[in-house]
Amino acid sequence: MDVDAEISRTQEERRKLEEALAAGAPMAVSSVTFDTDLYGGGGADPNRFAGYDTSIPASEDDAAEDDTEAANPAPRRLAAYTGHAIAAADLPRSADDDALPKRSQRIIDREDDYRRRRLNQIISPERHDPFAAGEATPDPSVRTYADVMRDAALAKKKEDLMREIAKKKKEEEEKEKEKKAAAPEQPAATTKRRNRWDQSQDSDAAAGAKKAKTSSDWDAPDATPGIGRWDATPGRVGDATPSVRRNRWDETPTPGRMADADATPAAGGVTPGATPSGAWDATPKLPGGVTPTPGKKQRSRWDETPASMGSATPGGLGAATPAGYTPGPTPFGAENLATPTPSQIARGPMTPEQYQLMRWERDIEERNRPLTDEELDAMFPQEGYKILEPPASYQPIRTPARKLLATPTPLGTPLYAIPEENRGQQFDVPKELGGGLPLMKPEDYQYFGTLLNEEEEEQLSPEEQKERKIMKLLLKVKNGTPPQRKTALRQLTDKAREFGAGPLFNKILPLLMQPTLEDQERHLLVKVIDRVLYKLDELVRPFVHKILVVIEPLLIDEDYYARVEGREIISNLSKAAGLATMIAAMRPDIDNIDEYVRNTTARAFSVVASALGIPALLPFLKAVCQSKKSWQARHTGIKIVQQIAILMGCAVLPHLKSLVEIIEHGLSDENQKVRTITALSLAALAEAAAPYGIESFDTVLKPLWKGIRSHRGKVLAAFLKAIGFIIPLMDALYASYYTKEVMQVLIREFQSPDEEMKKIVLKVVKQCVSTEGVEADYIRNDILPDFFKHFWVRRMALDRRNYKQLVETTVEMANKVGVADIVGRVVEDLKDESEPYRRMVMETIEKVVANLGASDIDARLEELLIDGILYAFQEQTSDDANVMLNGFGAVVNALGQRVKPYLPQICGTIKWRLNNKSAKVRQQAADLISRIAIVMKQCQEEQLMGHLGVVLYEYLGEEYPEVLGSILGALKAIVNVIGMTKMTPPIKDLLPRLTPILKNRHEKVQENCIDLVGRIADRGAEFVPAREWMRICFELLEMLKAHKKGIRRATVNTFGYIAKAIGPQDVLATLLNNLKVQERQNRVCTTVAIAIVAETCSPFTVLPALMNEYRVPELNVQNGVLKSLSFLFEYIGEMGKDYIYAVTPLLEDALMDRDLVHRQTAASAVKHMALGVAGLGCEDALVHLLNYVWPNIFETSPHVINAVMEAIEGMRVALGAAVILNYCLQGLFHPARKVREVYWKIYNSLYIGAQDALVAAYPALEDDGDNIFSRPELAMFV
Amino acid sequence: MQASDRFNINSQLEHLQAKYVGTGHADLTRFEWAVNIQRDSYASYIGHYPMLAYFAIAENESIGREHYNFMQKMLLPCGLPPERDED
């Protein structure tokens, strides 16, 4: 066979090659056979491999060179330079990103490093409560305030010492270096030898320096990166935090990433992905195994292909480093063992990180398992292949680590380990828990593992039993179903004091520190704390700090609701524990060495201030802000003031003066950070107080003033911000003066390259410009030129926040100087080549024109503007935020009739774009039509509109629902403006085309379509034959199922219009038939539609058929009729007086029905009826109905009783309070408590509704001994 | 009360009712109710000026005096509360 021949030939060739290799023959690149298809054939060109590496570097040096090049790819890619990578991440993503799987729910996955520092905090042991202890000396084992303070001082000292040592070392090193530099007689050889070391050191140092440089002083370690130091809301701060925004690729869990993200920072050093063990094909080494490769500093290039490596041996790396399995805080001794056996993995509760890793690994193993012979047979064709013997030299990999990986589950026994008998052992199948407990997540074993031990509960001590009980309840709250959660939460609340604060918090708080916590779980646990706090009250005192440690991080969470929740808890906590305890708990943290702790503490303090009142905290704040001991304390104190201002807003006004006094000395503090935060606090206070309270700032004006002249950099920025917020509080005269003064500095800082400074300058300019007293001329001449020169540059459009701020500031300027100036300056930029920049220009123009109109714009500018807008509109590649569309619409609407000359051109563009291949472009074109339709009408371009109408009509076959929706919307806009008669295509052609579209289930299509159909039914029903309307009626019934309320509302209204057009009979028959359907929403909408039909066609056309339908012995139908009546009487109001006698017998029957819903619905019909006919002389019928309603007052079902009570309230309005009071009196002092309760409830609502009217109707009570109950005044007669 | 209707509209209604002083409950005594009635009555007389004028004419007092009298009567409109028998 030729296959055999071919195989033997290949084998022969290979053998030769191998021999040659073995003989040491040099392998020239040219001798190797390249694929000529790929590399181009023909050996004539000797340079054809010029661009390729001919050998793989043996040493590290060569690779290093490449590394540096790879590390700085910018020069190579410069040709395609588009903008910052960071900025690109900030730009709105296109919609296709949404198709990616949803983000993880876990809190930790969206946190940045700074926020993750919460996990470093230690839940401190409980503290002494001096209030509870009274005079007694505290037990030495309990931590008192003094202990805590001592510890804090110690930590501080240690930190100082370490810093001192580090400084000394550095100095010494420098000295050493100097010495070496002074000794030039180094032999050349050694220098060369050492060169590499030097280089690497240098590059390290350079990298360090670079780092130091790039992380400008704005994110120096002591600053709060990320969280709004400069802003009120701690949102994401793009550039202050190093790489907060994660690439979407990060969302796929790779093992390295896993460990990276999950491991507590302590374990961070040993991320599995970073194992430097080198070559990609090497067997993963077991730690502590044979020859570990001596720590190579420079990783070779091969290590840097994470993708291929990740997929080739992914789990391996993770599995092979047990350190990855045992993150710092919870080591259980595995790391000392040389070879981790798989049994070890399953032993004891796994930490959540381990579990995640394992889960993932198992998944990958499953997919990458070796193919079996059968599978291979199935894959390959029978012909042309031959199964060969494996060569004798083939050695399957038998290294233990590989084997370990090969096992699909870690529970297999690749290595022998004596299996231990362990009853509590957890297999990865979650164990069923008895007693109706919810399933445990693997992550929970650590906390709830003991619940699995099936020991006899009786054998436990009462303490242990209590603990178990708490754990069970908490597990139910955390993982249970909603009803389970509810009861568990209630039990926890009710028994809180019985359980005691200690056991409760000892169980709850560690759960909140769990690294894999999800948002929902955290919310629930926080809720538990809140409820429990309320019950425990002063018993929480010893645990205040503990609770704060876990709750404070919520205050800087990026989720708004988490922040609110955190505030609520701390506020409740401070109310329960009292000011003294709160201060005692938090005082030591105020000058903590960790900035994170200080930051959160400051925020927590501001919450305490808002809970207990600012005055209570003032003395303490004063003392802290003047602390001589440490600048940290002063810094935190002033920061508390800032946070109070941010949190409480204008509520600081009464205390403004004292707050300013407390912090003002900080402006001249010796520490720069304190000066900065003081200025920022003043800014926050001024912002909160605006527009009042300038007199409180009098004392700080001068220091601020001096400050902006003497400071530079970020202190200056802070000072400018303070001034910027104070100026708007001033009188016009002063404001103008100060603005002019500060503007010199601002204009100088326009050119600052610092991003933060830019933002602040923009903000301050905005503040100053908007202030009364700053003249337009001044702005025009002194500010605008420099402003536009420095800020209106392309780069500003790339950063989201700069962009927003710049647009806001420019709009504010336009408000002062008018449209023409601003638009005139930017209009040319509409044709700029950078799209983000064009978008920014467009947004500015849109806002300016929408605010101020276009009357200032002269003919020339108008031409330029339209031209620019058309250009920008046509050139856009993506417009997710609809900036271009809105801008176009705004400008056209503002110009009004002046657009007339340009309309043909605009319509040409629209028509051309309607025909575009891209769905988005088509959609946008249709949207634009609906925006400018009104203006087209103003310009009397009806012919053009008719033309557009025909074009749109032709596009009704559109297949993209979003686009179809927009097209329908555009048609609607045109029909609305030019009216039914002039519409082209004529309505009689248009509507039949719409009927099938009504079947479309897409929400946008439905909404626009029903709007259009409703419009036609309302205005132009006569153009369409009745048969077509009936067809539409049937389609409309389906639309009642829509989820969106707007659609359902439009549908029922359309029923009304159709009924008006073709008479109610047929429509009503359709609707009454629909009452028989099962679906509730459908029936409800039908009843509404019936009521609307009745309202539009007068009730007498509908009532007979409707009441006749009540005779159908079917629950749903009868209830539907009653509900229709209820809606009907609600809609017709006073008109009901003509129909009340007609429907009374029906309602009598319904109010006596056995079915609850009958009575409920009838009661609500009675309510509407009574309210409608109040004062129209129908009292007789109403009293009759009241007699039927009244016996229902003892109903317990919430809906029924509610309806009945409302009916009685309605009767009160129609019949007067006295009548109802007389019904009430019989039961107010009834011997049966149940009866009394109901009657008093009725009495109370009566009393609230008509307190005064009852005075005349109260019964005359007989005097009782000393007590005189009679009201003689009422008997007076003149 | 059942657990289910702790948070529904009815409980809100009762909460609302409890905010008004003059509302009652199942354990209200005859005396307490009478006091409420008396105070409401006096408040009503004072609030409606024509009523006040009418009473002033009937009693031959000035309107201001009548006003003052009614206010005073609102303090203990029915005399001291009866002794509660301990049960």
Highlighted features:
heterodimer, A: 1278 residues, mainly alpha, B: 87 residues, 57% helix
Explain what this protein looks like in three dimensions.
The complex is a heterodimer of chains A (1278) and B (87). Chain A has 1278 residues and is mainly α. Chain A has a domain at 1216-1277. Chain A is 62% helix and 0% strand. Chain A contains 61 helices and no strands. In chain A, helix 38 (800-817) packs across helix 39 (819-826) and helix 48 (1003-1019) packs parallel to helix 50. Chain A is globular and about 115 Å long. Chain B is 57% helix and 0% strand. Chain B has a domain at 28-77. With 87 residues, chain B is an all-alpha fold. Chains A and B meet through helix 58, helix 60 and helix 61 of A and helix 1, helix 2 and helix 3 of B. Chain A: Residues 59-69 have a biased composition (Acidic residues).
In short:
Chain A has 1278 residues and is an all-alpha fold. Chain A has 61 helices and no strands.
Q: Look at the helices and sheets of chain A and give the structural class.
A: mainly alpha
What is the string of SSEs of chain B from the N terminus onward? HHHH
Given as residue ranges, the uncertain stretches of chain A (5+ residues, pLDDT < 50) are 27-32, 39-44, 57-102, 187-348, 399-413
Helix content class of chain A: 55-70%
Biggest β-sheet description of chain A? none
DSSP helical segment count of chain B:
4
Shape assignment of chain A: globular
* N-end to C-end Cα span of chain A: 136 Å
